[in-house]
Each structure stands twice: as structure tokens, then as C-alpha cells.
């Protein structure tokens, strides 16, 4: 700063605007007179002046003096509006999980296969009426459900199954089947595939049971899987094991029956035994015969 510049702010005891403080309080507004007639054409009429307190004048003078100091020092402060950018916002990062991909497996195909309502199959007069809620494990043409069509001890009287559907999607489509003595719930494998939180899946299983309104409930374990990855970043094989444990615990908590019809197809690591699955996700038609037999026994046991 040049020596010729001197910046100072008047203290409370100094004069401001040519007026002395009055007893330490704000000084009165100085008297003003109406402009003389000769001033009408030389300057604009300011109107009636608004009283300005001493404190306000002190603040104004301080601002002017501070600005003069900044200008004298060659400092300019410019305030500009700022819009938050992506760099300004905190970003939550998730640790990438690496899952194994089995390259020799064919990519699974899940066509739009749907089964809905009662199945027109021969049944004995005392056949067990049951309902079903499922995904492709139940909806495929060679599934356990279709293989039970020839079993006249059982009669599917309603339900909904759709290939590729999660538990919440089955819940949205299925309707009440109060005439069913047993509800078979086979859902969750697509929840695992799409990395749906486990508690959401279990909550939707419970909601399906309430919506259908069957007398008794049979919960089905998750199937084996040769796939240890998915496009959603899930390890499908270990996920099915976790799902099965959760389904079993949920069934026990509600007093429902539980069945694992895939035991004869599952290896110790949760994969399919060789030759029991064409794509690592669904059983073969031959393997589904053992699944259907286990399901028939479980439905009859649940109905008793």
C-alpha cells in the first residue's frame, strides 16, 4: 500500500457527517429546508428525507472506508453465484465385487412362459387342491408342475408362475385362491439373480401367502446354480444357498412346511450335478421327474 493512503474507521466518539454525538445516543436528524425556487430547474427534488440514524451512518462510512482501502491496495473482491457441480457433491463408492464366470456354460434363455389359474387335469374326488406361485422352475413346459398333471391325487386349482419373474412381480399378478388346501411357494431365484435384498424377498413371500389365502403353505428351497455371476453382479450359486436358508427359517417362524426337492440334483458346492441341467439354472426334463416326485410327496404331507 502507498504511504499516501491511510485507511481508518471513525470510532463511536468521532464525528460523523459534521454532527457530534448527543449524550452517547444517536444524534437527531439535522434540519432541512424545502428547496428554494431557484433550485427547481437546477436539481431534482429529493422529496421528504428519511431519518438516518447515527449507527447506520457509522456502518455506511465504515463500508466506504474499507472499500477505499481495498481499491488503494489493488485488491478487488468479486462475488459470483456458484452452481454445485458433480465435484462438489459427495459421491458414495461401492467396492467392486469380483465373481467368477464359468465360460463353458451356455447363456440361459427365459422365454415368456406363463402358467395361470386352474389346470384342467384329471383328478380324483378326494384329490388335494393346491395353488402355486412360482417362476421358470414352475412355469417351464417340463417343470414339476406340468409333470404333476398326470397325478390324479393332486389338482392345481389356481395360482401364477412366470419365467424370469421376481417375488414382487409374482405377488402383483397372483390372486386369491381360498379353495386351495395347500399353497406351494417357489420364488426367489430371480431375486438372487437381480441382487434384490433378501429381506425384500422374504417380505414378498409372506405377502404372497396372505394374498392367496390358502389353508396351508409349502415353501420350496432355491434350486442349484452353476452360475457364480450375473449381469447385476450377484453370485447366483452362493445366493441360492443363502436364499434357501432364509426361506427355511421363514417357514419355521410361521409354522409352514418346507421342502428341498433339489437335493438329488445339488452338488456339495451348490452347483448342479453333471448332466442334470442344460443351462446351469433349470433342471433337465429327466431331472424334473425327481423334483416332481418330491413335490407331490410334500404337498400331500402338508395337506394332512
Offer a quick outline of the entry.
The chain has 304 residues and is of the alpha/beta class.
What can you tell me about this protein's structure?
This protein is an alpha/beta fold. It has 2 domains: 1-77, no CATH class; 114-303, Rossmann fold. The chain is 30% helix and 11% strand. The protein is built from 8 helices and 6 strands; from the N terminus they run αββααβαβααβαβα. A 6-stranded mixed beta sheet has the order 1-3-2-4-5-6, sandwiched between helices. Helix 4 (167-173) runs parallel beside helix 6 (198-212). 33% of the residues are buried. The model is unreliable at 1-48 and 67-103 (pLDDT under 50).
| Shape-level CATH architecture of the largest domain | 3-Layer(aba) Sandwich
Strand order of the largest sheet: 1-3-2-4-5-6
Listing every helix as H and every strand as E from the N terminus to the C terminus, the arrangement reads: HEEHHEHEHHEHEH
Question: Could you estimate the helical fraction of the residues in percent?
Answer: 25-40%
Please give a handful of descriptors for the protein shown.
304 residues, alpha/beta, Rossmann fold, 2 domains, globular
Question: How would the blueprint of this fold be written?
Answer:
Layout: H1 54-72, E1 114-116, E2 128-134, H2 136-139, H3 144-147, E3 154-162, H4 167-173, E4 182-186, H5 189-193, H6 198-212, E5 216-220, H7 236-254, E6 257-259, H8 285-303
Parallel strand pairs: 2-3, 2-4, 4-5, 5-6
Antiparallel strand pairs: 1-3
Helix pairs in contact: 4-6
Amino acid at each position: 500500500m502507498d504511504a499516501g493512503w491511510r485507511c481508518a474507521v471513525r470510532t463511536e466518539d468521532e464525528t460523523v457527517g459534521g454532527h457530534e454525538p448527543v449524550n452517547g445516543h444517536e444524534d437527531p436528524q439535522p434540519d432541512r429546508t424545502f428547496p428554494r425556487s431557484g433550485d427547481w430547474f437546477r436539481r431534482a427534488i429529493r422529496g421528504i428525507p428519511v431519518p438516518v440514524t447515527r449507527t447506520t451512518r457509522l456502518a455506511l462510512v465504515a463500508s466506504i472506508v474499507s472499500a477505499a482501502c481495498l481499491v488503494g491496495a489493488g485488491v478487488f473482491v468479486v462475488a459470483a453465484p456458484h452452481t454445485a457441480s458433480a465435484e462438489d457433491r459427495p459421491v458414495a463408492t461401492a467396492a467392486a465385487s469380483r465373481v467368477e464366470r464359468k465360460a463353458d456354460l451356455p447363456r440361459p434363455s427365459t422365454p415368456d412362459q406363463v402358467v395361470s389359474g386352474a389346470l384342467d387335469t384329471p383328478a380324483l374326488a378326494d384329490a388335494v387342491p393346491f395353488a402355486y406361485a412360482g417362476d421358470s422352475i414352475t412355469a417351464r413346459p417340463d417343470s414339476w408342475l406340468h409333470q404333476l398333471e398326470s397325478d390324479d391325487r393332486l389338482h392345481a386349482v389356481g395360482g401364477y408362475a412366470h419365467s424370469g419373474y421376481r417375488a414382487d412381480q409374482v405377488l402383483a399378478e397372483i390372486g386369491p385362491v381360498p379353495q386351495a388346501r395347500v399353497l406351494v411357494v417357489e420364488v426367489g431365484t430371480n431375486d438372487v439373480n437381480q441382487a434384490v435384498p433378501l429381506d425384500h424377498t422374504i417380505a414378498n413371500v409372506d405377502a404372497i401367502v396372505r394374498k392367496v389365502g390358502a389353508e396351508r403353505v409349502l415353501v420350496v428351497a432355491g434350486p442349484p446354480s452353476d452360475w457364480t455371476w450375473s449381469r447385476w453382479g450377484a453370485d447366483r450359486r452362493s445366493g441360492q444357498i443363502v436364499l434357501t436358508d432364509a426361506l427355511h427359517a421363514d417357514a419355521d417362524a410361521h409354522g409352514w412346511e418346507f421342502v428341498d426337492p433339489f437335493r438329488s440334483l445339488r452338488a456339495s458346492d451348490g452347483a448342479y450335478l453333471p448332466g442334470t441341467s442344460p443351462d446351469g439354472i433349470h433342471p433337465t426334463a429327466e431331472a424334473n421327474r425327481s423334483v416332481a416326485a418330491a413335490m407331490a410327496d410334500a404337498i400331500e404331507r402338508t395337506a394332512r
